[in-house]
Automatic annotation (TrEMBL):
Residue ranges of domain Tr-type G in the record: 8-176
Primary role: One of the essential components for the initiation of protein synthesis. Protects formylmethionyl-tRNA from spontaneous hydrolysis and promotes its binding to the 30S ribosomal subunits. Also involved in the hydrolysis of GTP during the formation of the 70S ribosomal complex.
Residues of the full protein shown: 423 to 712 of 956
Superkingdom, natural source: Eukaryota
Name by which UniProt lists this protein: Translation initiation factor IF-2, mitochondrial
Family to which the UniProt record says this protein belongs: Belongs to the TRAFAC class translation factor GTPase superfamily. Classic translation factor GTPase family. IF-2 subfamily.
Compartments where found: Mitochondrion
Record lineage: Eukaryota, Fungi, Dikarya, Ascomycota, Pezizomycotina
Length: 290
């Protein structure tokens, strides 16, 4: 199938950077300015991922814990859930060890980055120093003829945040992100926990559309979707590609980093799980013999 004929999907963006450079503050700002958040009175629950609907109707999905064990697991399994990395660098602290670490991750995953120089509201901000430090660490920023966009922002005052959203959208347009909306769905577990309402897993849908009543297999765990909830805690009917969604209805708790596959019916889902259990038992037996 010609990929360019598939429907567009929202970009999935991961925020990375050194400790205290303002990742959470930036995300909180984006979340609050989101149309979805204001629609639901701004009451959001933490599910490790959220989507921002911009006033123009476009959507951006943000993943908020890059240190997440799930990311490493998913990458080891060959899945790049992230389309864009926002590298946050505090203007008063410049490039630090975890900035360089984040750069390495983005490069290893071959994910394009946008630099957000944060805390530009501070008097101690040294924007030019940050830019030259970035260049000295091999980041080919626009200012010096490269193609990495740099946006100056303040998560505190909101300065430059519109520009950051614009940069993400324009990069996404270039990336031309598309996904199948029909057919058997596929996704990844970002996090999972047992809540008062039952076993819950936040799943990022990669392709296809998840709906209530669908059968899923994640690792060796079966689910029949009982409830789908948005990050705002609101029940939704369906989750299209690029959307993070909380799913209830698991027979057991799946692990962060597990791939989620939809099965056409209950029998096929259960057979897939039996087969996986058998394979892993055989694998263990082989490992014991060795
Ligand atoms: P970790 O998750 O611990 O790595 O930190 P973080 O990168 O999420 O940073 P966080 O958002 O917690 O911000 C760290 C501190 O910087 C907090 O005290 C914020 O209030 C402050 N801060 C964040 N952004 C800005 C900004 O744009 N301007 C100013 N002046 N302070 C900021
Ligand atoms: Na912090
Ligand atoms: Mg934080």
């Amino acid at each position: 199938e010609d990929p360019s004929s598939l429907p567009p999907r929202p970009p999935v963006v991961t925020i990375m950077g050194h400790v205290d450079h303002g990742k959470t503050t930036l995300l909180d700002y984006l979340r609050k300015s989101s149309v979805a958040a204001s629609e639901h009175g701004g009451i959001t629950q933490h599910i490790g991922a959220f989507s921002v609907k911009l006033s123009g109707g476009k959507q951006i999905t943000f993943l908020d814990t890059p240190g997440h064990a799930a990311f490493l697991t998913m990458r080891q399994r060959g899945a790049n859930v992230t389309d864009v990395v926002i590298l946050v660098v505090a203007a008063d602290d410049s490039v630090k060890p975890q900035t360089i670490e984040a750069l390495k991750h983005a490069r290893a995953a071959k994910v394009p980055i946008i630099v957000a120089i944060n805390k530009v509201d501070k008097e101690s901000a040294r924007i030019d120093l940050v830019k030259s430090d970035l260049a000295n660490n091999g980041v080919e920023i626009e200012d010096f003829g490269g193609d990495v966009q740099v946006v100056c922002v303040s998560g505190k005052t909101g300065q430059g945040m519109g520009d950051l959203e614009e940069s993400i959208l324009s990069l996404s347009e270039i990336l031309d992100l598309r996904a199948e909306q029909d057919g058997m769905a596929e996704g990844w577990v970002l996090e999972s926990s047992v809540k008062s309402i039952g076993r819950a897993a936040t799943v990022l849908v990669k392709r296809g559309t998840l709906r209530k009543g669908d059968y899923l297999v994640a690792g060796k765990v079966f689910a029949k979707i009982r409830v789908l909830r948005s990050e705002a805690g609101v029940e939704i009917d369906e989750a299209p590609p690029g959307t993070p969604v909380e799913i209830l209805g698991w027979r057991d708790l799946p692990d962060a980093g597990d791939q989620v596959l939809q099965a056409p019916d209950e029998d096929k889902a259960r057979n897939a799980i039996e087969y996986r259990i058998e394979l892993s038992e055989r694998g263990e037996a082989v490992a014991q013999m060795a």
